[in-house]
Design goal:
alpha/beta, Rossmann fold, two-stranded antiparallel ribbon, 5 helices, 11 strands, about 20% helix, glutamine amidotransferase, transferase, ATP-binding, cytoplasm, purine biosynthesis
């Protein structure tokens, strides 16, 4: 299985994502922001960082990169897409996921480890988890405060589209939301970083299961 990782100016988690994909047993493929081709990949990860310096607002410029047109077509056709931190912000700016990521409620950058609980496991990126599974993942963001209007929040809750929920909310996100999916459940956005917890030699391997899940979903044994 080939999994692409988009690389924007300012991305700083692309190497972590490529490493996690390789450890999970897939072939990592770099997808340069100025190249429209997805190179025939089977899934795409939009990594964390500060794409285009987070000018205007996080993800606002990256949303118009050449690679995003192809990524949006891929996602709309049902292709598995995972956005992590800044990648989550990019996906909301591209309207592939609802809502927005606002400035943290305490108005400070947060860099810590957050206990989280898996809610929906009916996505390619959570297929190996069970609802209620808990783990601790790194968080590092200034705009991780998930917000949507009341109707949207009710809809994603009613439809079981909250994928991940904070047990200790670090940023003020509504309903302790740490991750969501789209209506088709193929596009997932997470604020915590599973790729930074994908190698026990570097501190934790708990997050590797997220990347192994997409292989399992595709019928490939991790």
């Amino acid at each position: 299985m080939r999994i692409g990782v988009t690389v924007f100016p300012g991305s700083n988690c692309d190497r972590d994502a490529l490493h996690a994909i390789e450890r999970a047993g897939a072939t990592p493929v770099e997808l340069w922001h100025a190249d429209a081709s997805l190179k025939g990949v089977d899934a795409v990860v939009v990594p964390g960082g500060f794409s285009y310096g987070d000018y205007l607002r996080p993800g606002a410029i990256a949303r118009f990169a050449k690679v995003m047109g192809s990524l949006e077509e891929f996602a709309n056709a049902g292709g598995p897409v995972l956005g992590v931190c800044n990648g989550f912000q990019v996906l909301t700016e591209a309207h592939l996921l609802p809502g927005a990521l606002l400035r943290n409620a305490h108005m400070r950058f947060v860099c810590s480890r957050a206990p989280v609980r898996f809610e929906s496991v009916e996505t390619p990126w959570t297929s190996l988890f069970e609802s209620g599974d808990q783990l601790t993942l790194p968080v590092a963001h200034n705009e991780g405060n998930y917000f949507a209007d009341e109707k949207t929040i009710a809809q994603i809750e009613d439809e079981g589209r909250v994928v991940l929920r904070y047990l200790e909310n670090p940023n003020g996100s509504l309903n302790d939301i740490a991750g969501i999916c789209n209506e088709g459940r193929n596009v997932v956005g997470l604020m915590p970083h599973p790729e930074r917890a994908s190698d026990p030699a570097l501190g934790s391997g708990e997050g590797l299961k997220v990347f192994e899940s997409v292989l399992s979903f595709a019928g490939i044994k991790a």
